[in-house]
Amino acid sequence: MTWKKRIAGTASVMLLAAGGMMATASPAAADGPCPANRLCIYDGANFTGNRIASGSTNSCFFPQDFTFDAIVSYDNNLPVDAKVYHYYADIDAYTVARTLVSGGFSSNIGVANLGGAFGDLVCMGSARP
C-alpha cells in the first residue's frame, strides 16, 4: 500500500471514530448485544472478545487499526450490507472476502483471519477501497 493510501486510510478511520464508531478493548460480553443501527464485528466466536461497532452507512475502516485480531462473529443491524475486503500488497488490489448482509449475523463465520491482515478493510454501503 502506498504511503498516500495509508495516510488517507488513517485519516478516514479517525473521521469514522468521530462520526459513529466505537472500539472496545474489553470483552464484548460486558458490553451487551450490538445496538440498533450498528455493525458489530467481534474477534471471538459467539459475539465475544473485542468489538468494533460502526454506525456509518457509507465509509470504510481498517480493523487492524484497533485492538482487534480478525472477524470471527458479527451482527449487522445497519440498513446496508458491509463488505470485508482483503488487500493483496503484491498487486496493490482489493477483493471482497465476505459480505456481512444487512440484518444478518453469524456466531462463527469460519473464515480464517477475515479482516485481520494488514490493509484489509470493512466497507459499509456503497463505500469502496
UniProtKB/TrEMBL annotation:
The alphabetical list of record keywords is: Plasmid, Signal
Annotated signal sequence is 1-30
Pfam families in the cross-refs: Inhibitor_I36
* Name the record gives this protein: Proteinase inhibitor I36 SMPI
